[in-house]
Amino acid sequence: MASTPGTPRVLRAMNDRAALDLLVAHGPLTRTRLGELTGLSKPTASQLLARLETAGLVRRTGSVTGRPGPSAQLYEINPGIAHVAALTVSPGGVTALVADIAGTVAGEHRVRTEEAPGPAELVARAVDGALAAAGLGRAALRHTVIGTPGALDPRTGVLRYAPHLPGWQSPALRDELAGSLGTPVVIENDVNLAAVAEQHAGAAQGCGDYVLVWADDGVGAAVVLGGRLLRGATGGAGEIGYMPLPGAPLARGGDDATAGPDGGGGFQMLVSSSAVVALARSHGIDARTAPDALARAARTPGAGDDVLAELGRRLATGLAAVVAVVDPALVVLSGAVCRAGGERLRAMAEAELTGLALPRPELRLSTVGGSPVLTGALRTALAAARETVFDTA
Question: Which of 59, 177, 311, 318 is 20 to 30 A away from residue 217, measured at CA?
């Protein structure tokens, strides 16, 4: 008979999940501390831990010493009960990492695009390489999340807004990957995943209404309202790289695989990495990458000041259009361009935005280190895997 709310079985499952989530958040805990955090009595907490230990979900890991009385046993999540894979995709290749259910990364591997005949093989080789580095096989995996430029159209399953990823537009790709890897597969927009990372452990912690603006080789945004990602009818919410703006040519045919990564126009042409390099060169500052161009601009009085001021104006123009529609409490600036511009660029964009838009959101720089996309993919994969692994009902 199916369980109903309030039955002992359901209540036990709820307590189990609460305890497991606390062990994930806090690390090893004693029975007494777990009881305090959950509000359970000592006997009930003992029964709960015994039940979870028997199920293989928790294990004993040392004890607390150095205080009066007998030492207290510590319990932790059994990290080896399940693993997840998180991947990020770019035109140059795929990077995969594998982590245990507690979130500890066990292996990482990168495969260049030219090393595989197509997306499915590329992903499989990257995951297998990360699993091999962790000493694991595919049977260890429970869930896979892949971060890509563009977004899956929920109506067709086709990856849109990513013409620079040829071969990734097959509507059967996700099913092929799931069949190959043996896990559920989520293909998620990379900027959305960066926003997940910022909300979990970055500049957007505690904020339910914010926009993450990503300026890098590509330009995009993630819109979070009421704590939920806004996706749009075709999955294209936040594709602000195509947004028409003064000073930029109109983007036409941007979803065509032959159009190139910027679609030929829009906000992308003003603040992407290639646009920053071109802007710097127009002021006599020669550099191969946007971070290098902005670093040189910061060291070059006069011309460098002009580069940063112009980039701040361009960034603020795009932000004004987004803010006027969404009215977020916070805008997080991320991607290589924003990170390289740093606090100086952030302050310039904020000052310029004040005169362009009535809403006055706070502007913050990203604080997530490493790859925010991989971090977000990992958080998403772990959340999905725990929903099944931690369900003791």
Answer: 177
